[in-house]
Amino acid sequence: MADTKKINISELRNLEVKDTEFETFLNKAQEKTKLTEPGHHFCTVSMRCLDFLNFLFTLAQNCDHLAKTYAEVFEEKKIDGEFYVKYFRNQAPFLLEIMICKQIDEFTSYFSELLRLILKANPSILKSGDRIKVEEILKFESMDELTAHLIENKIMELSYQSFTDLGIWLEERLGVDLFDENDEKEIIIELIETRNIIVHNRGKIGTKYLKNVKSTRFKIGELRKIDIEYFARSAVFLILFLKSFDQKISKKFKLVTR
User: How far apart are CA 43 and CA 39, in angstroms?
Assistant: First the structure.
C-alpha cells in the first residue's frame, strides 16, 4: 500500500463521515501490515477508491472556492459558490454504486486467489470421496496438470457458493474460522447482496436481498441508495476484516507475506 497517499481525515469528515470511531478505524486500515499478495492487492484497490473519492470532493471544493473568489472580485451575484460541491453530492451515488461493486468483486476475488495459493501448496486438502472418470484423468499428461485442474474446479465451485457456505468449507477443510464475530458475517452478506441488486436489479430491493439480510429497514421494490458514509465505512470495514483474516490464514499455512 506504499503507492497510495494517506487520506486526509478532515476531508473525509467533509464527506459526511464525522465520528472519532471512524477516524480510528481509518488510521488502523492505513497501517502497514504484512499481507499475502492477494491481501495487498485488495487493500491497495480499496484505499485507491477512497483516495479517488477524496480527490473528486476536494476538486469540487476548490472549484467552488475559485467561483466565490471570482464572484467577489467581479461582483457577480449570479454565481453559485456551492455549485460544484452540490453537483458532486447529487452525482456521487452513480460513482459509489460502481465503487461498491468493484470493491465486492475484488473482495470475493481475494478468496479465490488465496485458496489457489493454499491448494497449490497443500493439494492434499482436495482429498474427498468424489470420483473422477478415467477418460477425464487421461486428458492430462502429468499428475501436476491433473492437480492444477482439480484446484481450479474447486475454486470455481466455491466461487458460485454463498459466502456462508464458503465460511463452512473453510472451517471444515482448512480449520479456519472466517468470522470472529457474527456481526461481521451480517455486514459482509449485506454488502454482497447490495452489490447483487445493483448489478442485477437496478439497485432495487428484491426477495433474495430480504431473505439473506436478516435485519434491514428496506422493503421490497425500494431503491437501495448508496451514500458516501455507507461506502467509506464499508471500505474501511472490509480492509480491517481482510487484514485480520489474511494474517490468521497466512500464519497457519506459512504463506509468503510482505
Answer: 6
